[in-house]
Design brief:
alpha/beta, Rossmann fold, 8 helices, globular, disordered N terminus, GDXG_lipolytic_enzyme, hydrolase, BD-FAE-like_dom
Length: 305
């Protein structure tokens, strides 16, 4: 196991064109829902890449497509890690490069993980960052030639819970004085997502890390996103393996059923095998879910220039 500094790792990120991927601070001034602490960000290299924990300074790393391919659509990517760490390579940077190949401008969100030592309310810190990322990409739209109505949110595992929360809680943004800028994503892409905090199908680590082991029934309901779906929830693309032992496949299924009940367009791909955390490549099948995603994005007009 090799440790390295986050800064060195971020500087090593390059776009498909070989240029450095810019790293943008998420907040220009004071970071909301933060307090002074001894918490320090750590970065460790493991089998499938870098794991980051104890995020204090949230950022967006930008991957731009070649100019002749750019189509004006953007996607903010939320890596997974059980709300304890971020699998920032294979559920972040690697995916961003692939999206850039099909003309999408991709932003990898290094969001704050719940931490009671550095946050007054740990349950809202990740959502604050996801909503701020949506505002920021809207503001950056002219600079990157983006369509502000074509900003999607993609999340893996607990990052899928964060994306699904942002996709169902946008009508009442969290934080003080959130302002008038919309924080509704145009679409959601959820990979083996944590959706529900209900006892029967929850991923206990994610639930405990975000809202605590003694959370009230109201908080459990609030963050069980299958219960928060409305007709305004964005169109959604879901991928899950049926043998997932970490996040039960029922999480994707109940979210799909809720979308269907509310007449929200959704597409779901369930693989018999693949387990959890496979990123872009489910080794048990020759099928590539990224190809299915490209078809879905194309069919909805999000790859049209």
């Amino acid at each position: 196991m090799l440790s390295l500094t986050t800064a060195a790792h971020l500087h090593a990120q390059t776009t498909a064109a070989g240029t450095a991927a810019p790293v943008l601070p998420l907040y220009a001034g004071a970071i909301p829902d933060s307090k002074p602490s001894q918490v320090q960000e750590t970065s460790v290299t493991e089998g499938v890449g870098v794991r980051i924990s104890n995020v204090i300074q949230p950022t967006l790393t930008v991957y731009t497509p070649a100019r002749d391919r750019a189509n004006g659509t953007s996607v903010i990517i939320c890596p997974g890690g059980g709300y304890a760490r971020l699998a920032i390579d294979h559920e972040g940077y690697d995916v961003a490069k692939r999206l850039a190949d099909i003309g999408i401008t991709a932003f990898v969100l290094k969001y704050r993980l719940p931490n009671e030592h550095s946050q007054p309310d740990k349950s809202i810190a990740p959502l604050l960052d996801a909503q701020q990322a949506l505002r920021m990409v809207r503001q950056l739209a002219p600079k990157y030639n983006l369509n502000p109505e074509r900003i999607g949110l993609m999340g893996f595992s607990a990052g899928g819970h964060l994306a699904a929360t942002a996709g169902t809680h946008f009508a009442r943004p969290v934080g003080d004085n959130p302002g008038p800028v919309s924080v509704r994503p145009a679409f959601l892409v959820l990979l083996y997502p944590v959706i529900s905090f209900s006892d029967s199908i929850m991923q206990k680590g994610s639930r405990d890390n975000l809202i605590g082991a003694t959370a009230s029934p109201d908080q459990v309901r609030r963050y069980s996103n299958e219960l928060q779906v409305t007709a305004q929830t964005p169109p959604t693309f879901l991928v899950h393996a049926e043998d997932d032992k970490t996040v039960p496949v029922q999480n994707s299924i109940v979210f799909y059923q809720a979308l269907h009940r509310h007449h929200v367009p959704a597409e779901m791909h369930l693989y018999p095998k693949g387990g959890h955390g496979f990123g872009m490549n489910n080794a048990t099948t020759k099928d590539q879910w990224m190809d299915r995603l490209q078809n879905w994005l194309d069919a909805n007009g999000w790859l049209t220039k």
